[in-house]
Description:
The protein is of the alpha/beta class. The protein has 20 helices and 25 strands. It has 3 domains: 254 residues, Aconitase, domain 3 (2-Layer Sandwich), CATH 3.30.499; 138 residues, Aconitase, domain 3; 152 residues, Aconitase, domain 4, CATH 3.20.19.10. The strands form 6 sheets. A 7-stranded mixed beta sheet has the order 22-21-20-19-23-24-25, covered by helices on one side. α12 crosses α14. The two termini are 41 Å apart.
Amino acid sequence: MGKTIIEKMISTHCGKEVVPGDIVDVTVDARVARDFGGANVVKNLMENGLKLDDPARTFFTFDCNPGGSDQKYAANQQRCRDFARNSEVRIFDIDQGIGTHIALDEGLIGPGEVFVSTDSHANIMGAVAAFGQGMGDVDIAAAFSDGKVWFKVPRSMKVILKGAPLEGAAPKDIVLKMLKELGANGLLGYSAEIYGDYVEALSLSGRITISSMCTEMGGIIAILPPNEAILSELGSEVELSEILADDDAHYDREIEIDITGVGPMISRPGHPEDVVELVRVGGTKIDSAFIGSCTNGRYEDLRVAADILKGRSIAPGVVLKIVPSTRKIWERCLREGIIETFMDAGALVGNAGCAGCAAGQIGQNGPGEVTVSTGNRNYRGKQGKGEVYLASPATAAASAVAGYLTSADDIPVEPMLFQKGEAISSVASAECTKVGEVSTVFRGRIWYIPRDNIDTDMIYHNRYLSITDISQMGQYSFDNLEGYEDFAKKAGEGDIVVVGKNFGAGSSRQQAVDCFRSLGVSMILAESFGAIYERNAVNGGMPIMTYEPVEGGFSEGDEIEVEIGSGRIRNITKDVEIKGEPFSSVQMEIYRRGGLLKRPCE
Length: 602
């Protein structure tokens, strides 16, 4: 039987043929840590006495706080600089832009290769048929040290985009349509291959937009098979036959999404998957707009915005923030007069970086503020205390001019105005770990939270990401989850958290696992976990398990007993048996030694 694209890549990088479900060690071509995760990566390396496998394949990219405007971020960045200087590791510092885009533009990664980063949108590498994975600090430290990490080969899904959208529809509109159809967990656990005439004609910029938002659908990666034009743009000499799926490749699922007649789409605040046609919310007054991010900060995105803003002004009282994804794109916009157009229109143009998705750069909004953003996420609190709509660069630019949500072909002569009264180092020597007997049975009171898609900002908000001391993390657990803001004060030692589907969706932050360890929560049960969250929990030695829901199986405060070796779950209070998935041999081995980076004594 033939192989899918992901199966080919993993087979090549582990040295043997693989099938979905296999767990293998995969050689990583480029290993990257960002500024918010980099300090913890360095800390993990030093505390465990680990050295670098290959400094030439190891990089730091400072893109979350490229101004170094937060003292804790600045300290983390400097810690990485000190480590890099002593280790001959290359840093793309605060003047260079978003790490994943730098990796593409600088040739750090190419078709058929493997890339890991402390960035949950590392899977934008699917735009060039590379395998990119966001990971937590422990995983990246292991990749730095060993040159490889373990992967469970994912199942593959074929997604066919059928038909043609309206003229002028942007790739962002198409991926929002996909998100509407698939939902927040429609690609959960899958490597998706995206096909169709529309995909074949897409530029690299458009491919990046679509692959970037795979994370918001729960996917491992969304791969857009390249053609000769894309390979030429990348300067790649790889043969297409080496990376494209075989004709007889097997897909676990095949689905079609009809994009016929798709026009401007928009995601309503709070949930990226809450997508409607723009006309449904047209006329909504806005306070601000943002154009940028790893999803829409390419030259082509800024060119579209400039064409709309040329000769126009931003509506009075509205702030438009624009951030190119890389310094090279910024410089090209400067040479071609695009920056001048932005400035003439009244926009604020920031230096290259993540911007609105990260707390440390322009793009955050305040309480009551309504923003239209070209980013990939609008989780509650992710970009500030206000409301965030997700849309294309054309929609964001047009809305900034109009003062309200509108499309590029419906910009008014006069903007809507605000009315009065409107709401305004050296490597440390580490001892080996003596692997002894650890409990494989857990018994405790449950916190039953029957909600799906609880994301990492709800679990552990990004405003606390600079904290590296686990003992300080517990107090912030769930403080951004509505109804559970006081969870940390009420949770007891040995409590068990039971939740719904896709728990831990969103960011790659390890803190969203470690906060529960800090509190003394003994384990987490979920119907399913976000892919990165699952890795982080396993690697951190935090017991997690999926279960098959049973009507009335759990209630708040029940006492349960869980055997991780067998997957047996018994609700003692109700005298009910519930089936769970037992620990894999890899998971059990990591758990027994206390975490991925703990080295057992010989």
